[in-house]
Amino acid sequence: MNVVDLFAGCGGLSLGFARQGFNVVGAFEFWEPAADCYRANFDHPVSDVDLSNVALAVEAVGAFSPDVIIGGPPCQDFSQAGKRVEAERANLTQCFAEIVAVVRPRCFVMENVERCRSSRAFAAARRFFKGAGYGLTEIVLDASRCGAPQKRKRFVCLGVQGVADGFAAEIFESRLSKKPTTPRDYFGESLPFEYYYRHPRNYNRRAVFSVDEPAPTMRGVNRPVPKGYPGHPNDACSLAERPGIRALTTAERAQIQTFPADFRWVGTKTDVEQMIGNAVPVKLAEFVAETLKIFLGKTCVYDYLV
How do residues 196-206 score in pLDDT, each as one tens digit? Predict the structure, then answer.
């Protein structure tokens, strides 16, 4: 099945779908550093078409005749870290839905932060999806239950033409791991450390983590341990106990996002750190892609028709 990736970033969703046998034929990314990084890792074209111009986007996306459209519209205005107000970027969620509703691929996947699910922007997008005849499965997935060593929660809306809502819910639930994945589970005994520092948004939050618990969400910034870090009662250990504790390297952060070690990161350090923080974990993308593949491969698929 031919796939087009909208708001593709550096390619986490694309890579996950490609690994599950989907044929990614094109991508759209407006931020030039991420588009350059995407080009360094994929052979198919990536375009800088402004997807907020729906008419232009429909023409460009439709030219690929996609069977599946995937994408993660920018989520800053839904993020817990943001101002928690919906603004211009949230409108890109509706643009994604309008493009899908006009191009009408057989399936689509939209992912976003957990709070997107209750937003006005997604409510509007949902109306476009339903008006275009899609059955929807809406679920919040924890990446650590989907093969990634990171407790990163993402909202996924999976749509398939002509089926009833909730069509893939049981498949999703049955495939979640019973135990969250930790860095030690994922990397084995090759890790050169037991504890590491992740700079908190404020010092009311912990900052030192163990490799025997799922990593916290990889953010778009990566800072070293500051002088005078006061510690937190919930830290996995204190800096006094382990004075050699450090922040993760850029490469380590990318691998916790489950990008392969040979993925080519192109751009300034600041841009690359932002790409890593924005990306969909590859293993989470694979999990979603495989769930869709299982559903489409069911011999009893007609049982799901509306």
Answer: 999 998 889 99
